[in-house]
Amino acid sequence: AELLSGLKSSVAPELVANMSRLYEYMYHTLVQAHLEKDENKINQVIELLRPLRETWVQAMEKVEEDPENHGMPVPEEEKVKERPSFSLEA
Predict the structure, then answer these.
(1) What's this model's pTM, rounded to 2 decimal places?
(2) How does pLDDT run across 41-69, given as a tens digit for each residue?
(3) Other CB atoms within 10 Å distance of the CB of residue 41
(4) Can you spell out the DSSP letters for the chain?
(5) Among 60, 73, 74, 75, which has the minimal tally of Cβ within 10 Å of its Cβ?
(6) What confidence category does residue 89 fall into, taking pLDDT thresholds of 50, 70 and 90?
């Protein structure tokens, strides 16, 4: 639900529609995994999240490297010093 709330269809409607469907699929798969106590379903969602996480890490690094091209300068204190410690390891 948190991922869905961050999507803005006014920016890229087709991309948002695709991401919305993916997020909804992952959410429903996780609910099923919980109800069925199915670890395989959790692992399926983790495998879908891995490339998304890497894309966000790369996007953050790119904005920090060249913020003027993105219209949003990043204050020095907000720059990511290292990759987030969040892990998708099962």
Answers:
(1) 0.62
(2) 999 999 999 998 998 888 888 877 775 65
(3) 19
(4) -HHHHT--TTT-HHHHHHHHHHHHHHHHHHHHHHHHT-HHHHHHHHHHHHHHHHHHHHHHHHHHH-GGGGT-PPPGGGS-SS--------
(5) 75
(6) low
* Tokens 């996780």 sit on residue: 30
Residue type, 80: V
CA nearest neighbour of 63 among 44, 51, 78: 78
CB within 8 A of 46, min separation 6: which ones?
Answer: 88, 90
43's tokens? 């692992």
- The first and second tokens of residue 79, run together, are 């720059």
